[in-house]
Amino acid sequence: MSRIRLIFVCLLAVAAAGCKAQTNPVAAGSPVDRETARKIEVLAREKLKVPTEYVVTVGQRSPGEIPGFDKVNVTFSLPGHADHTQTLSFLISKDGQTLARLSEWNIAKNPADLVPYANRPVRGNPDAKVVIVNFDDLECPYCAKMHAELFPDTLDHYKGLIKVVYRDLPLEELHPWAMHAAVDANCLASQNASAYWSYVDYLHVHGEDVTGPDRNLVKANATLDKLATQQGVKSALDAATLSACVAKQDETAVRSEVKQAEDLGIEQTPTLYVNGEQMQGALDVSTLWTIIDRALVSEGVTPPAAPKPPEPAKQGN
């Protein structure tokens, strides 16, 4: 265990209900007495699931920012492993009867900037204030469903108010040809974004055809290359450049995308970010549009009105 798992411990209000002996407050800057330090250690070990081999050291009190509470730092360390050390700041009441842990979250960055998408093909309005970043697997059936929800209905509904970017997350253990497909798609993208999207559109509709009845990976990869070449002809791409890129099958860029997904803690596809707000799995249209509307409102943009439901068919007399 390299890092102690953090949990939120509620701040408990202590009320003087009935007759109770009063405890004299302890001044900030004084050491925590041995009995209280032991209580803190035992509670921290239990609540934070600290492994027994870790040493828990309770520091002294320091002035706190919340009335009635001081700060106390608690350090968790693994003997012989300097990199396995973490110090957490707790709140301790003046009377020494309540310990609390408050989580601090950094909101300095715009959430939309937390998931970079530079140099990826963009669909929709490049200047839109709301961006949907989708970590996609071209062999994933749930990704195909999400793709169908996005295009064309969602893109048409928002009419220039959103842009969509796909990033690669081929789950190779589940989808054997997904990596090859991502490489071929990026070969197309390097010359023309529209060619990339046409290829992605096709694969998300015809994935079973690529897999084939015998599920032969060599045949599937050959089919992917053939489809990429055909798309290159339709899009008037440089045939020699495309052919060399497809033949090389350089996975470096895709592997980098996978690493970034792992760093974000993403474990499944599709995983979408709408201006930084994460959703996992295929979403129905109403849920997706609610999330997009929320992002538009936060940017000061009025979302388009929801389409009217179709009128029920009139029954004859």
UniProtKB/TrEMBL annotation:
Name of the molecule in the record: Protein-disulfide isomerase
Family label: Belongs to the thioredoxin family. DsbA subfamily.
Annotated ranges, domain Thioredoxin: 77-242
Molecular function GO labels: isomerase activity
Pfam families: Thioredoxin_4 (PF13462)
Alphabetical UniProt keywords: Isomerase, Signal
Keyword Isomerase on entry: yes
